[in-house]
C-alpha cells in the first residue's frame, strides 16, 4: 500500500506509486551468479550500471556473454532448421536448474556439428539427384529429336533413290564422281545439349545466332513439368536445347554464352544404343540416390526431434544465463576483488524478500560469507512502480502513454478506470451497439487463457490487451444507451409507457403543441415519444450540449483538486495558496457559474438565454438582465464572480516566483560551514551532489515559466470547456448515423415487399453497422475520450516526467526475446 502522505489522500495501491529505496548489495564472488539468478526470479530489483564508463569488452564477464551469444546462435540455427522441417519443440517439462551450462554448451556443439554434416551431405546428394534428373530429361528430349531426325533422313534418302533413274547414272558418270568427291569432303558438325531457363530461352537463341553470325543450328523442346535447378535448389521452368556448330571457335563462344545464361550442359551420344544404355544407367542411379536421400532425411528428422525435446529447456537456460551475466557486468568489483558491489532500486515492501533470496543464494552456493544488504540515502529521483493486475494494467498503459508519473505523484489512472469508459459511452450511447461490443469482449475474456498463449496480429493483440477496458466501455454504453433510449436508433418504452399522448393525428409534426401529458414522467432516461418528432433534434442538442459542459467542468475541477492533493503530499504550501486556490476561483467563477445556471434553468424551466447571460457578463456587467434573470441579486453575484476571476490571474502569476526566490536564498544561507556527519551515517551517500555548492536559481526562467503556465490555464479554461462539446457532437453524430442506416437501408428494403431486396438490405445494414458504427465510431470515440483525459484532465495536475521501474526479471526477459 502506498503512503497516504499525512492523510491527504486515501490509502490506495494505484493512487501513489510504491515507496522505493536505493539498496546496496555486497555479494561474495562465489555466490554472485546464484544471487543474481534468485533476484531475477524475484523480479523486484532494478540494478544500476556501475560500470557505465567501461566498454562492453572491458567488463568482467565479457567472455561469458560471448559464450552465451554463441550458444544462442546455435539455438537460433536449430529453431530455423526445425521450422523448415516442420518439427515443433515440445513444451518444457523439466527445470532449467537441473542442467549445467557446460553440458548444454558441449551438447549444442555436438548436435550442431552433426546437423551441419548431415545438411552438407544431403545438399550434395540432392544436387547430384537434381543433376541426374536434368540429364535424364536431356537424354529423353534430345534422343527424341535425334531419333525423329534420323527417321526423316532415312525416309528422304529412300525417296531420292527411288526417284533417280539408273540410266541417268550411265549418261553422267562425271557428275556422279563429282558428287562422291564432295561427300567425302563434308565437314562433320559438333553439337552441345543441355537445359536453359525458359524465360531466357529466346534471348539465349538470339545471342547464339549473333555471336556465331548465324553459323549454328538450334533446336529447343519445352519441358512440361518444372525442374529443380541443381545450383539454386529452386523449381524453374526450363527448355532442353541442342546446338549444332562447326569449328572450335564457335564451340568456345557457345560454352561462354551457356555459362552466362546459367544453362546446364550434359554429354550426349548420337548412337541410339548408347542413349538407351545411358537412360538405364541414370534411372538406376536416381533410384539409389532417392533411397539414400530419404534415409538421410529420416536420420535428420530423428535428430531434430531429439533437439525439439529439449529445445525450450536449453533456450530458457541460455537466455537466463546471458541475462545474469549482463547484470553481473553492471556490478563493480571491490578493491579486494573478492566481492561484487551492486546498487539498485527496489520497492520498500520487497526488502524481506530480497534478504531471503540473498541468504538462500549464500547457502546454496556453499559460500563462507553471506551477502550484505543495506539501504542508501539519496536525492536521486526514484523510478515509478504501480502494482497492477490484468484489469488495471490497460488503463495504466493509457496513462503512461502520455507520460510516466513522477515518483509518488497522484496517479490519474485511479479515476480514468471509471471516467474513460464513461466519457466514451457518452459519445457512443446506444444499448444495442453496447451489447454487440460486450459480446465481442466477452469472447476475448472467456478465452483469455488460450488466446494469451497464441501469437495474435497487431490489431487483435491491442484489442486483447485492452479487453477489460472495452468491457467497461460496453457496459457504460449500455447504461448511456438506456438513458438516451436508443437500441440501434429505435426507442423502446422499457421502464414505463410514455408520459405523453397525441391530441390528434398531426401531433408528430408539431414543435410545441399537440402532445398532452397523461401519465407520470418517464422514470429513467429519455421519454420514447421524443423520437421521430420535429422537436427531437433541438431538444436533444440542448440537453447533450449542457450535459457536456457539466461533465467537462466537473472533470476539470477534479483535476484541480488533484493538484491540491499533490501539493499537500509534497508539502508545497506555495502551490496550494498561489496555484490551487486561484485556479479553483477562476474556473468556477466563470464556468462553474455557467454550470449552476444550467442546473437552475433545468429545475425552474426558465426561458433565459444563457449565451446572452455569459457574453454580457463580460461586455456589460452592470446592465440589467431583464428576462434572462434566473435568481434574485444575480447581477451582484456576477460582478463579484467577475472581480474574483480577474484578481485570481495576478495571484497565479506574481507571488510564486518571488516566494520561491526567497525560499532559495533562505535555504542556502550559512552553508559555508556544514556540520560533520555522524560515523554511523558514513555509509550513506548523496548521489545527486545537491549538498555541495549552491543550486542555480534563475529568477527570470522561473517567472517566464509561471507566466506561460498562467496564460495556458486562463486560455485553457475556455478552450478546454469548449473541447468537452465533442461529447455532444459525437453523440449526435452516432445517433444520426444509426437512424440513417435504420431508416434509409433497413426500412427502405422492407418497404419493397421483395425478399431478395430485403436480404440485400439486411446484409448492407449489418455491414454498415459493424464497419461504421462498431469499428470506426468506436475508434473515433476512443480517441476523443483519450484526448479529453490527456489534455483537458491531466494537464491540471499531472507532470508525467518520471521513469518506469524496470526490474531485472526473467519473465520480462523471456517476453522481450519472443
UniProtKB/TrEMBL annotation:
GO terms for biological process: vacuolar acidification. Pfam families: V_ATPase_I (PF01496). It is found in: Membrane. GO terms for cellular component: vacuolar proton-transporting V-type ATPase, V0 domain. The chain crosses the membrane at residues 422-446, 467-484, 547-565, 577-600, 636-654, 755-776. This is V-type proton ATPase subunit a. Residues 101-135 form a coiled coil.
Amino acid at each position: 500500500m502506498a503512503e497516504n502522505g499525512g492523510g491527504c489522500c486515501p490509502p490506495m495501491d494505484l493512487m501513489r506509486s510504491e515507496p522505493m529505496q536505493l539498496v546496496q548489495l555486497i555479494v561474495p564472488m562465489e555466490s554472485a551468479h546464484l544471487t543474481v539468478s534468485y533476484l531475477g526470479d524475484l523480479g523486484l530489483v532494478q540494478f544500476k550500471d556501475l560500470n557505465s564508463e567501461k566498454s562492453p569488452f572491458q567488463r568482467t564477464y565479457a567472455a561469458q556473454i560471448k559464450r552465451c551469444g554463441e550458444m544462442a546462435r546455435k539455438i537460433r540455427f536449430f529453431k530455423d532448421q526445425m521450422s523448415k522441417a516442420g518439427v515443433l519443440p515440445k513444451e518444457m517439462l523439466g527445470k532449467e536448474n537441473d542442467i549445467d551450462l557446460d553440458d548444454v554448451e558441449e551438447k549444442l556443439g555436438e548436435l550442431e556439428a552433426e546437423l551441419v554434416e548431415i545438411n552438407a551431405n544431403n545438399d550434395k546428394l540432392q544436387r547430384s539427384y537434381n543433376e541426374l534428373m536434368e540429364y535424364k530429361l536431356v537424354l529423353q528430349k534430345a534422343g527424341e529429336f535425334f531419333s525423329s531426325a534420323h527417321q526423316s533422313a532415312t525416309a528422304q534418302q529412300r525417296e531420292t533413290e527411288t526417284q533417280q533413274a539408273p540410266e541417268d547414272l550411265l549418261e553422267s558418270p562425271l557428275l556422279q564422281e563429282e558428287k562422291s568427291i564432295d561427300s567425302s569432303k563434308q565437314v562433320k558438325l559438333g553439337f552441345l545439349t543441355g537445359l536453359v531457363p525458359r524465360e531466357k530461352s529466346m534471348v539465349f537463341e538470339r545471342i547464339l545466332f549473333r555471336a556465331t553470325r548465324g553459323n549454328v543450328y538450334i533446336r529447343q523442346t519445352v519441358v512440361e513439368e518444372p525442374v529443380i535447378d541443381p545450383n539454386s535448389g529452386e523449381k524453374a521452368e526450363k527448355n532442353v536445347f541442342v546446338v549444332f556448330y562447326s569449328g572450335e571457335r564457335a564451340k568456345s563462344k557457345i560454352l561462354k554464352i551457356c555459362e552466362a545464361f546459367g544453362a546446364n550442359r550434359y554429354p550426349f551420344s548420337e548412337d541410339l544404343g548408347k542413349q538407351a544404355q545411358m537412360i538405364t544407367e541414370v534411372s538406376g542411379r536416381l533410384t539409389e540416390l532417392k533411397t539414400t536421400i530419404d534415409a538421410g532425411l529420416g536420420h535428420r528428422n530423428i535428430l531434430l526431434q531429439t533437439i525439439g525435446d529439449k529445445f525450450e529447456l536449453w533456450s530458457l537456460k541460455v537466455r537466463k544465463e546471458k541475462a545474469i551475466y549482463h547484470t553481473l557486468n553492471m556490478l563493480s568489483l571491490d578493491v579486494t576483488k573478492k566481492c561484487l558491489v551492486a546498487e539498485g532500486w527496489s520497492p520498500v515492501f520487497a526488502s524481506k524478500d530480497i534478504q531471503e533470496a540473498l541468504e538462500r543464494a549464500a547457502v546454496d552456493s556453499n559460500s563462507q560469507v553471506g551477502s550484505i544488504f543495506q539501504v542508501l540515502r539519496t536525492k536521486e529521483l526514484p523510478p515509478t512502480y504501480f502494482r497492477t493486475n490484468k484489469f488495471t494494467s490497460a488503463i495504466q498503459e493509457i496513462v503512461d502513454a502520455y507520460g510516466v508519473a513522477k515518483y509518488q505523484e497522484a496517479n490519474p489512472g485511479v479515476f480514468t478506470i471509471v471516467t474513460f469508459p464513461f466519457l466514451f459511452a457518452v459519445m457512443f450511447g446506444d444499448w444495442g451497439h453496447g451489447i454487440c461490443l460486450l459480446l465481442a469482449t466477452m469472447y476475448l475474456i472467456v478465452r483469455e487463457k488460450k488466446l494469451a498463449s497464441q501469437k495474435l496480429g497487431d490489431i487483435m493483440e491491442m484489442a486483447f490487451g485492452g479487453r477489460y477496458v472495452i468491457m467497461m466501455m460496453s457496459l457504460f454504453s449500455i447504461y448511456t444507451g438506456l438513458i438516451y433510449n436508443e437500441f440501434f436508433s429505435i426507442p423502446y418504452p422499457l421502464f414505463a409507457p410514455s408520459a405523453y399522448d397525441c391530441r390528434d393525428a398531426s401531433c408528430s409534426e408539431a414543435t410545441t403543441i399537440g402532445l398532452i401529458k397523461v401519465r407520470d414522467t418517464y422514470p429513467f432516461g429519455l421519454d420514447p415519444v421524443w423520437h421521430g418528432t420535429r422537436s427531437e433534434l433541438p431538444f436533444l442538442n440542448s440537453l447533450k450540449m449542457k450535459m457536456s459542459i457539466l461533465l467537462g467542468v466537473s472533470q476539470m475541477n477534479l483535476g484541480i483538486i488533484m493538484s491540491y492533493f499533490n501539493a499537500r503530499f509534497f508539502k508545497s504550501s506555495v502551490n496550494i495558496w498561489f496555484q490551487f486556490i486561484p485556479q479553483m476561483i477562476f474556473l468556477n467563477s466563470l464556468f462553474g457559474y455557467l454550470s449552476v445556471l444550467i442546473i437552475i434553468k433545468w429545475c425552474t424551466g426558465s426561458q433565459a438565454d444563457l449565451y446572452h447571460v455569459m457574453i454580457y457578463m463580460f461586455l456589460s456587467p452592470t446592465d440589467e438582465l431583464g428576462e434572462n434573470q434566473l435568481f434574485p441579486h444575480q447581477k451582484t453575484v456576477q460582478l463579484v464572480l467577475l472581480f474574483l476571476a480577474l484578481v485570481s490571474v495576478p495571484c497565479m502569476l506574481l507571488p510564486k516566483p518571488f516566494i520561491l526566490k526567497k525560499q532559495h536564498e533562505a535555504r542556502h544561507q550559512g552553508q559555508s560551514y556544514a556540520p560533520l556527519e555522524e560515523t554511523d551515517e558514513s555509509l550513506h551517500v548523496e548521489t545527486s551532489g545537491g549538498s555541495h555548492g549552491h543550486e542555480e536559481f534563475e529568477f527570470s526562467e522561473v517567472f517566464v515559466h509561471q507566466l506561460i503556465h498562467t496564460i495556458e490555464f486562463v486560455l485553457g479554461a475556455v478552450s478546454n470547456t469548449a473541447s468537452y462539446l465533442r461529447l455532444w457532437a459525437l453523440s449526435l453524430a452516432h445517433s444520426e448515423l444509426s437512424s440513417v442506416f435504420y431508416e434509409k437501408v433497413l426500412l427502405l428494403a422492407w418497404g419493397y415487399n421483395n425478399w431478395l431486396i430485403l436480404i440485400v438490405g439486411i446484409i448492407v445494414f449489418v455491414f454498415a453497422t459493424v464497419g461504421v458504427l462498431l469499428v470506426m465510431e468506436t475508434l473515433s470515440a476512443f480517441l476523443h475520450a483519450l484526448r479529453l483525459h490527456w489534455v483537458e484532465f491531466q494537464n491540471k495536475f499531472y507532470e508525467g516526467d518520471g521513469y518506469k521501474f524496470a526490474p531485472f526479471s526473467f519473465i520480462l526477459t523471456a517476453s522481450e526475446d519472443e
